[in-house]
Amino acid sequence: MANKVIISCAITGSIHTPSMSPHLPVTPDEIAASAIGAAEAGAAVLHLHARDPKTGAPTPDVTVFEQFVPRIREATNAIINITTGGSARMSIEERLKGPASLQPEMCSLNLGTMNFGLYPMLDRPREWKHDWEVPYLEATRGGMFKNTLADIEHILTTMGPLGTRFEFECYDIGHLYTLAHFLDRKLVTPPLFVQTVLGILGGIGANPDSVVDMRRTADKLFGKDYQWSMLAAGRNQMPLGTMAAVMGGHVRVGLEDNLWIGKGELSTSNAQQVTKIRTILEELGLAIATPDEARAIIGVRPR
């Protein structure tokens, strides 16, 4: 089981907007159906955000989460992972509403305040469906994604006592050292599930050297006390995810991180991306973890 690869799937996120792809899940029905399809395709972990059903804008509204999370829990055995990242425009209190209310097995946790530039997406010509989309993306030119040390500690001390495990999202080398700080303080408990994130403007670049650097640093800081997963944004999703899995890690795919399935071809579903990475890894002789195997590997409590 130690050699099995955990596939995580990030279903909708808060990066892409509805005008970028007709396949991006927006409504609770779409998010539920897309997540269930990803689980059926082989995803052991489902990373979930909520969106306003009418506009597609990211929302912290608990009532929206409540329209799809229970349905996913009932239909699949996958690990439910609710974001505490929300979006860069939400307060930390807003970002905690969904996880604190629904008490998932896992939630994500961003390990540092950073520039989070989405505005280059405005360079691609398109017809915008909603008035909020362009200002939302443009705001990332002058804004930041706030995750102070106090914010991180607040999330840890709010969700940790509920038995929730964490997907530690590390966008740069320094974020790994921040996580080591909280490990030293015993505010986090091994095995850590470290999600290294490559390719966001403001974080470490998406290239093979970055994969090696992040893995080497995590090995130095955490030794055998962690499980390593790789997320690469955009077109780097499949090649760098495959590289990480071959190096003994796990992999995250999904429409939150990448709207494409191939050059110039939009991905039609999250399940399509899960199927593709699963096929690649199995062709390389790697075994895919079931949800219960993933729970045992990363220390998530049994359902």
TrEMBL record:
InterPro entries: Aldolase_TIM, BKACE. Keywords: Metal-binding, Transferase, Zinc. GO terms for molecular function: 3-keto-5-aminohexanoate cleavage activity; metal ion binding. Its cofactor is Zn(2+). Transmembrane segments: none annotated. It holds the Pfam family BKACE. This is 3-keto-5-aminohexanoate cleavage protein. The lineage of its organism: Bacteria, Pseudomonadati, Pseudomonadota, Alphaproteobacteria, Hyphomicrobiales.
